[in-house]
Design brief:
Helix content is 45%, strand content 10%. By secondary structure, it is α/β, with parallel strands linked by helices. Among the domains are: 238 residues, Nucleoside phosphorylase domain (Rossmann fold), CATH 3.40.50; 217 residues, Rossmann fold (3-Layer(aba) Sandwich), CATH 3.40.50; 40 residues, no CATH class; 64 residues, Serine Threonine Protein Phosphatase 5, Tetratricopeptide repeat (Alpha Horseshoe). Strand 16 and strand 17 form a beta hairpin. Helix 20 crosses helix 21, helix 30 runs parallel beside helix 32 and helix 32 packs antiparallel against helix 33. About 3% of the residues have low confidence.
């Protein structure tokens, strides 16, 4: 049935299967069968297990072969094909009290991907007959001497395909009465002996050709023909499966078999979501009636949807426009319209929000949102979460950015012929470098989609980005479109609400000119800066309150909830004695909170309309006025030039003031030990700003440390009470700190490089481990958080870039970082072969021969892994070359045990003691001869190695040399003995 047969590939050492490799219509196929004379569920499970060892990336299997039909079910005839939609292991059960056999097996069904292909093929067969006869005829033309059909029968013209339940068991069914009883009880149409053993190991669909009727009349006459019809059906089904982008096979051959918890995908899917994921799209007003319809007939939009022109635009559409021109509105319209019009296809949307939290304005949040929507709609694509080469086997929380991109790419590659369209709005509200990286990534995806005929489309919208040039794609400017001008005219006409038509005709052209294609300017004057300044200076009272309000909206670590915002303002104003000294009582009254936000911001801030409301400016142009148009200095002429840094210092003081309130301190001390969700909710309700003040005080201090000295703040920082409060708000127990945690460890773990540098100026011996913390050492904590600058600060270098290379390259977000919990920073860096990091660590003055949790020094780890440059540096800096570890092995032992001949020569030349014995009483000479290093052995002998020492097997060097046939060494040893 294969179109092509491929060459064999190496197998996993534990795999006893034999394989035939090939392809059917661009789909790679692996064929294996049970050993001769062996059958049954257990043997089938063994074959499936071995298959997964060598080919862990296989998504599904077909169990193709013969079976016994149940004649009373659906007119099943010899040579027909039965496809198992449900599998029952009929001989699995228990003997109950009255001696009767009670079946305990539960039904097993096929995977969604197989089920989708199966339904597609069944639907095709409703219209057209199966191609089994033509497939058999075509394939058998190559084997004209083979007699496939039984007895005197000729090939039949029609083969029926039956779908239903199959009974699977370890015994051959050859008794008609028993057959009928089981068939009635389980509602099955076929008996076979393997499928139940494979379905718990790998998704499987049994396809059986009927060769007998599971009774005493069994014979082999119909077996070859029945097997052939089943194989022909399997080929027809395989051709319905989506073509998956080819992956390098060898990369997976040695991948270990990884067992995952059944709910791991659900945990990963849940981790992708975040609270404000859809808030920006929800808060965008719907298009005004009769507007936006022009887009559906726009030539560029229609060309983007035209599959025949995909090769030209690679699936890209970019809509750009002025601020306030209605880009988000038209994106929401396009997304909603396509959602209604093309229900069978998947549409996803991500709307950046500069006024939102970090995930709302970053590409990391965008990838999380798009990937989650895609995997929820096409559930079979969730298999990408099982790829051990992308995700570590113990990963259950949200992956970092680089892994999110890999997962998204993998999911796109297995879309097959299904359509997938993304709408990504407001690129200008995301970091510029992130946008450049994202556009490059999507261009690469578009190229792959074109090459593999994958229907993947993406629509961007943004303000004007003249520096972003698409290699392929369709692009148009919103305010230049005639339909957009008509929309604006409709909008203004309806907003005027003037009955005098002649007056409307007089006013409309001037209003359109002033609006300049921008909807927001159709409502307010074109000089926005003057408007905002007029609003804010209409009265000059409470300017301190306004300034604090602006600072919180601009520079909070995350957008504040309304009640948090209210208490944050109180805390800052209490420092200046501008409010009552008592913390205000908490309230959730919407009118009260609206009044606070509007009055303090003088109408330029609002509470968002979402499930989790936050405080933000009424429009992004307010932020532009304050920062880009010099509005802040016009309102406060005496303001510092480094206003952002002074703002962070001011917000830090707000946090300190709140945490030091007597009522807050008393409540913190009275908290019950251990996790307590009720206590957490109660204290958060009573003191709404407490969680933010606790979790963000160090963030503001770190930002202020660019200019403002933080030594006194760190020396007086209430570390123990902060840890208690932080742990109280921490959702994940593993991320909690012990009360003995050092401030440096916390700063490294949180990723605050400026505070790390400040702390290190007043302290030394920072590398001392904190044994009970999650990562033990501050350096490991910083690497785990992926903060390059914090790593650089700990290594006392100005930047993570050294000689044009990032010293953390390949180290941040390491999936195997937890495996180094028992290492010291030096032994870990030496094991990794990172000469740059080892050099920096040595400059911090650490103990060069400090042993890690395995009793190993940095030199020992470098020798074991063959990192000669690292070993040479350590020796030059005074490392003890002869220190033994727990197994009494020296660096020289480890170099020879791990076959690093050049490393061994280096250590010998640098004066390593060559006669030290390890716990197996072996010397360096024993290991050199045992691993075939004749030249090293000669060097050791010339350096004075004791040739008469015997190891634990009482073998001397002469024994080893003789056994390995080293005649020259034997002669040399004989001379020295």
């Amino acid at each position: 049935m294969l179109d092509d047969v491929h060459e064999s590939l190496p197998r996993n050492p534990d795999d006893t299967n034999s394989y035939v490799l090939g392809s059917i219509k661009r789909r790679n196929i692996v064929i294996s069968c049970l050993p001769a004379g062996q059958y049954g569920i257990v043997n089938a499970a063994t074959v499936a297990t071995n298959l997964k060892r060598t080919f862990p990336k296989i998504l599904m299997t077909l169990m193709v072969g013969i079976g016994g039909g149940v004649p009373s079910k659906g007119d099943i005839r010899l040579g027909d094909v039965v496809v198992g939609t449900r599998i029952m292991q009929y001989d699995l059960g228990k003997i109950v009290a009255d001696g009767k056999f009670e079946r305990t097996a539960v039904p097993k069904v096929q995977s969604p991907l197989l089920g989708t292909a199966l339904n597609h093929l069944r639907a095709k067969h409703e219209l057209n007959a199966s191609r089994i006869p033509s497939i058999l005829q075509q394939k058998l033309e190559r084997y004209i001497d083979q007699r496939l059909y039984p007895g005197v029968y000729d090939p039949p013209g029609t083969i029926k395909i039956h779908y239903g339940a199959i009974a699977s068991g370890n015994q051959v069914m050859k008794h008609g009465i028993t057959r009928d009883n089981v068939a009635r009880e389980l509602d099955i149409i076929c008996f076979e002996m393997e499928a139940a053993g494979t379905m718990d190991i790998i998704p499987c669909l049994p396809v059986r050709g009927i060769c007998d009727y599971s009774d005493s009349h069994k014979n082999e006459e119909w077996q070859r023909y029945a097997a052939a019809t089943a194989a022909a059906y399997a080929r027809e089904l395989i051709e319905e499966l989506p073509v998956i982008q080819e992956q390098p096979v060898v990369a997976y051959l040695t991948s270990p078999d990884r067992n995952r918890p059944e709910n791991r995908r659900q945990l990963l899917m849940k981790s992708l979501g975040f609270k404000q994921m859809d808030s920006r799209r929800i808060n965008i007003n719907d298009n005004y009636k009769k507007t936006c319809q022009w887009l559906l007939n726009h030539p560029g939009y229609k060309a983007w949807l035209d599959s025949t022109r995909f090769i030209q635009h690679h699936g890209f559409l970019w809509i750009s426009g002025k601020p306030g021109a209605g880009k988000s509105t038209i994106m929401k319209f396009a997304y909603s319209n396509m959602k209604r019009a093309c229900r069978a296809d998947v549409k996803t949307a991500s709307f950046f929000n500069a006024r939102g939290g970090s995930l709302e304005r970053s590409t990391s949040g965008m990838y999380r949102s798009l990937l989650l929507q895609l995997l929820e709609e096409y559930r079979d694509l969730q298999t990408v979460l099982d790829n051990p080469d992308i995700l570590p086997q113990n990963q259950e929380d949200c992956p970092p950015l680089n892994i999110l991109k890999d997962l998204f790419r993998d999911a796109i590659s297995v879309l097959g012929q299904r359509r997938f369209t993304c709408f990504v709005d407001a690129l200008d509200e995301c970091d510029e470098q992130q946008v450049m990286d994202m556009v490059e990534f999507f261009e690469d995806l578009g190229e792959q989609a074109k090459d593999h005929n994958i229907q993947f489309r993406i629509c961007f919208s943004s303000r004007h980005y003249p520096y972003v040039v698409l290699k392929h794609g369709i692009r148009f400017t919103l305010e230049d479109q005639p339909g957009h001008a008509e929309d604006l005219a409709i909008y203004i006409t309806n907003r005027l609400r003037i009955n005098d038509q002649s007056l409307i005709e007089d006013l409309l052209p001037e209003l359109l000119r002033k609006a300049a294609g921008v909807f927001i300017l159709a409502e307010i004057p074109s000089d926005l800066s003057k408007l905002f300044k007029d609003l804010l200076t209409r009265d000059t009272k409470d300017m301190d309150s306004l300034l604090l309000c602006i600072r919180w909206i601009l520079f909070a670590e995350r957008p504040l909830q309304p009640e948090e915002f209210r208490h944050a303002l109180w805390s800052g104003l209490s420092l200046s004695k501008l409010v009552d000294s008592q913390i205000p009582a908490a309230t959730r009254d919407k009118n009260s909170l609206d009044k606070v936000v509007i009055s303090y911001s003088k109408g330029l801030a609002e509470i968002t309309k979402s499930q989790h409301p936050t405080v933000q400016f009424i429009h992004e142009s307010v932020r532009d006025f304050l920062l880009k148009d010099n509005g802040l200095h016009e309102l406060w002429p005496g303001m510092e030039t480094d206003w952002e840094i002074s703002s962070h210092e001011n917000l830090k003081q707000c946090c300190i003031s709140y945490l030091n309130q007597p009522s807050v301190s008393t409540s913190i001390e009275s908290l019950p030990p251990g996790p307590n969700s009720n206590a957490r909710e109660n204290i958060s309700t009573k003191f709404p700003f407490l969680k933010y003040a606790t979790q963000s005080i160090l963030y503001h201090a770190n930002a202020a440390a660019e200019v403002v000295v933080q030594n006194e703040f760190l020396s007086e920082f209430p570390i123990v009470s902060w840890i208690k409060m932080n742990n109280h708000f921490e959702k994940h127990t593993i991320r909690e700190y012990t009360l003995a945690a050092s401030l440096l460890y916390i700063l490294a773990d949180k990723g605050y490089p400026n505070l790390v540098r400040t702390w290190l100026k007043d302290h030394s011996q920072w590398q001392i481990p904190i044994h009970r913390e999650r990562y033990r050492y501050p350096l490991f904590a910083a690497l785990a958080s992926g903060n390059n600058e914090t790593v650089a600060a700990l290594l006392n270098t100005a930047s993570s870039m050294m000689n044009g290379t990032d010293i953390t390259e390949g180290l941040k977000n390491r999936k195997d970082l937890k495996e180094y919990k028992n290492r010291t920073p030096l032994s870990w860096a030496a094991q990794e072969g990172r000469l740059d990091i080892v050099t920096l660590l040595l400059e911090t003055g650490l103990v060069i021969d400090e042993s890690d949790g395995g009793g190993r020094t940095g030199l020992s780890r470098a020798a074991e892994n063959g990192h000669e440059a690292v070993a040479k540096l350590l020796i030059e800096k005074g490392a003890n070359i002869n220190i033994s570890d727990g197994s009494r092995s020296t660096a020289l032992h480890h170099a020879l045990q791990n076959r690093h001949e050049a490393m061994a020569r280096l250590l010998i030349e640098k004066g390593a003691d060559i006669n030290i014995i390890d716990e197996s009483r072996s010397t360096a000479l024993h290991y050199a001869l045992g691993n075939g290093y004749e030249a090293v052995a000669r060097l050791l002998i010339e350096k004075g190695a004791d040739v008469n020492m015997s190891d634990e097997s009482r073998s001397t060097a002469l024994h080893h040399a003789s056994q390995n046939g080293y005649e020259a060494v034997v002669r040399l040893l004989s001379e020295r003995s």
